[in-house]
């Protein structure tokens, strides 16, 4: 991962694309890596999806043909490590992995998530195989479906903002954007699993328990969402303090 | 056996036709996963004939009757056999899988069939044959060994299954100096655990075999000649201090009595990770000097077992790099893992290579996971997903298992 970023930096230096506002510093003998490299707008985004390249020549629309011709002359940015052309790529899961990552150690974070998914699937499949015929259809075995549904159940609909009026700060209910809601759900899930567990419980074990509970609308994270909703409901009177 | 592809070239919808000369028992309708074969499902029903079977399962649950026609198919180990035959031999991930799927299915593969055919045709009045399973990491050596152990068990042999010889040369908390021999060391915990599992596996033999020698344990305790073996084993389990010596005594008795004409039984010594018996240990004496493997009673006695100076049984061993000490991770050949000393002791042996899954075996494994609802990701049930699985795992059984675990 670090080798790729260093090469990226070197490329930029060669093509002279590094702007004056660039965040990286090159000292002799040592390259300091940057989080967000700034490419010249001349560079185009890479296309990781395989379907795009499988469309035969005849079925391309004029815009797509133009785009292809443009791509053959313009340089393309280096793809980051998180994009794959794999069919199993899930952007929401990648975001969750990034949020769980500490000190840039994505291997450990990804390992925890895969163990969580395996653990959830094992519990559900075991229940499935032991259940009588009538109950089998109700048991959800797909860990990805459970993860997405659990996250949906944890997303708050309305949030609170601290707005100053007349010298005092009021908690005012505000609408939340989709990104903010997703962020809050993931953040609550991760903090809950980090804080409220027994010293000996492993992260993936606790995370799988919480996700399964959230899937059936129980558990501490869903409770926290409900408490936020209640606070917003109780502060309805201040809603007109919002000016946007 | 022919494999046909239904129209639409969907590789999942394969049919199995039984060849007319060989009769195959019972059929269950082919299990077509509904999500992927939507349009083909109607066509399939029309084409299903009464004798079509599941591609990946066979009803032949007796290892003795399995042959080449069952290659690549899964047979179920009967639940009654499971806890008696395998109290300790199976790989941990496989044990988890058995618990999840509520059944224990083993794939019939070429190395195991070869081993079983050797065992069927061997001459047991000659000195013991040694068979060595070797292959890259994760190719299925331990599972082949367990398959063979199941065969030996069903044939009524006495099975001495050592789940992992590496466990005896590392991570030992208690190392007692041996009472029998001044320079050797005892491992009470490992020995008593093994004796307990040995007792579970071979219950019915314990009362039949009688000791031929008197064993004295302490000033007040001794086991007389003619007592049943069960008594010796019970004593070893209860008196943990002398359990290593009990193991040595048990091995000696079995070696003497295996080829016997009156009440003779066949003895199968199945050792996993046999390369741990030669080489180095990570154990240290009190003065911090390293312990050599021959200074451990358990290892010393097991080495005597693996020698081919007794008759009336077979030694089936597996090499293992996974638990091995001071061996490079790319080593898998017998010469590399056994070392000079080990190779000379094992020589002559019958090498049995264990390879990665063939295309047919991969198909079988894939269909088995689909049947057990293990592959849940919607994309993993498509052609693209299957190609990706083949690419990522390189058809290595353990890598495929770990990939499918979170998909």
From TrEMBL, chain A:
Listed Gene3D superfamilies: Ribosomal protein S7 domain
Domain Small ribosomal subunit protein uS7, residue spans: 80-236
Subcellular locations according to the entry: Mitochondrion
Pfam family, one: Ribosomal_S7
Gene Ontology cellular component annotations, sorted alphabetically: mitochondrial inner membrane; mitochondrial small ribosomal subunit
Taxonomic source organism: Hucho hucho (huchen)
Protein name: Small ribosomal subunit protein uS7m
Location (main, coarse): mitochondrion
Assigned protein family: Belongs to the universal ribosomal protein uS7 family.
From TrEMBL, chain B:
GO MF annotations, alphabetized: structural constituent of ribosome
Pfam families associated with the record: DAP3
GO cellular component terms, A-Z: mitochondrial small ribosomal subunit
Protein name: Small ribosomal subunit protein mS29
Keywords: Mitochondrion, Ribonucleoprotein, Ribosomal protein, Transit peptide
Subcellular compartments: Mitochondrion
N-terminal signal peptide: none
Gene Ontology BP term (one): apoptotic process
Family affiliation: Belongs to the mitochondrion-specific ribosomal protein mS29 family.
Taxonomic superkingdom: Eukaryota
UniProt cross-references to SUPFAM superfamilies, sorted A to Z: P-loop containing nucleoside triphosphate hydrolases
């Amino acid at each position: 991962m670090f080798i790729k970023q260093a090469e990226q930096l070197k490329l930029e230096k060669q093509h002279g694309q590094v702007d004056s506002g660039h965040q990286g510093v090159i000292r002799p003998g040592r390259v300091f890596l940057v989080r967000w490299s700034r490419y010249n707008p001349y560079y185009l985004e890479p296309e990781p999806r395989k379907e795009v390249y499988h469309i035969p020549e005849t079925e391309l629309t004029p815009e797509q043909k133009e785009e292809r011709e443009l791509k053959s002359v313009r340089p393309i940015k280096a793809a980051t490590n998180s994009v794959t052309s794999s069919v199993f790529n899930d952007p929401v899961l990648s975001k969750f992995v990034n949020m769980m990552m500490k000190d840039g150690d994505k291997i450990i974070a990804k390992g925890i998530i895969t163990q969580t998914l395996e653990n959830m699937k094992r519990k559900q499949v075991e229940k499935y195989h032991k259940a009588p015929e009538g109950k089998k259809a109700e048991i959800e075995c797909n860990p990805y479906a459970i993860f997405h549904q659990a996250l949906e159940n944890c997303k708050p609909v309305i949030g609170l903002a601290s707005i100053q009026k007349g010298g005092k700060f009021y908690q005012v209910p505000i609408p939340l954007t989709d990104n903010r809601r997703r962020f809050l759900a993931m953040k609550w899930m991760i903090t809950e699993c980090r804080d409220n567990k027994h010293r000996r419980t492993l992260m993936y074990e606790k995370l799988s328990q919480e996700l399964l509970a959230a899937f059936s609308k129980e558990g501490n994270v869903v409770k926290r969402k409900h408490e936020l909703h209640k606070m917003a409901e109780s502060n309805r009177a201040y809603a007109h303090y919002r000016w946007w | 056996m022919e494999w046909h592809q239904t129209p639409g070239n969907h590789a999942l919808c394969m049919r199995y036709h039984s060849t007319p000369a060989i009769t195959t028992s019972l059929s269950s309708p082919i299990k077509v996963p509904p999500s992927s074969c939507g349009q083909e499902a109607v066509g399939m029903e029309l084409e299903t004939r009464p004798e079509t079977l599941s591609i990946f399962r066979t009803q032949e649950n007796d290892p003795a009757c399995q042959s080449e026609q069952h290659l690549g198919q899964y047979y179920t180990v009967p639940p009654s056999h499971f806890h008696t035959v395998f109290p300790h031999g199976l790989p941990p991930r496989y044990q988890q899988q058995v618990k999840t799927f509520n059944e224990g299915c083993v794939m019939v593969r070429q190395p195991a069939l070869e081993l079983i055919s050797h065992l069927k045709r061997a001459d047991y009045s000659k000195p013991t044959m040694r068979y060595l399973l070797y292959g890259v990491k994760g190719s299925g050596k331990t599972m082949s060994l367990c398959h063979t152990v199941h065969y030996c068990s069903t044939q009524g042999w006495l099975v001495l299954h050592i789940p992992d010889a590496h466990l005896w040369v590392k991570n030992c908390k208690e190392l007692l100096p041996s009472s029998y021999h001044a320079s050797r060391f005892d491992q009470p915990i490992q020995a008593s655990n093994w004796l307990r599992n040995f007792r579970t596996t071979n219950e019915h033999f314990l009362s039949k075999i009688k000791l031929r020698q008197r064993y004295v344990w302490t000033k007040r305790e001794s086991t007389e000649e003619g007592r049943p073996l069960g008594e010796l084993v019970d004593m070893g389990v209860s008196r943990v201090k002398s359990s290593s010596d009990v193991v040595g005594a048990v091995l000696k008795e079995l070696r003497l009595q295996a080829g016997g004409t009156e009440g003779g039984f066949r003895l199968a010594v199945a050792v996993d990770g046999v390369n741990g018996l030669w080489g180095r240990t990570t154990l240290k004496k009190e003065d911090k000097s390293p312990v050599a493997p021959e200074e451990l009673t358990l290892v010393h006695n097991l080495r005597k077992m693996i020698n081919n100076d007794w008759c009336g049984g077979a030694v089936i061993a597996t090499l293992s790099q996974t638990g091995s000490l001071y061996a490079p991770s790319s080593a898998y050949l017998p010469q590399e893992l056994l070392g000079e000393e080990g190779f000379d002791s094992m020589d002559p042996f019958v090498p049995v290579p264990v390879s990665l899954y063939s295309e047919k075996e991969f198909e079988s494994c894939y269909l088995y996971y689909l049947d057990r609802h293990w592959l849940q990701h919607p994309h993993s049930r498509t052609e693209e997903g299957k190609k990706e699985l083949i690419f990522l795992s390189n058809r290595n059984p353990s890598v495929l298992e770990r990939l499918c675990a979170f998909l």
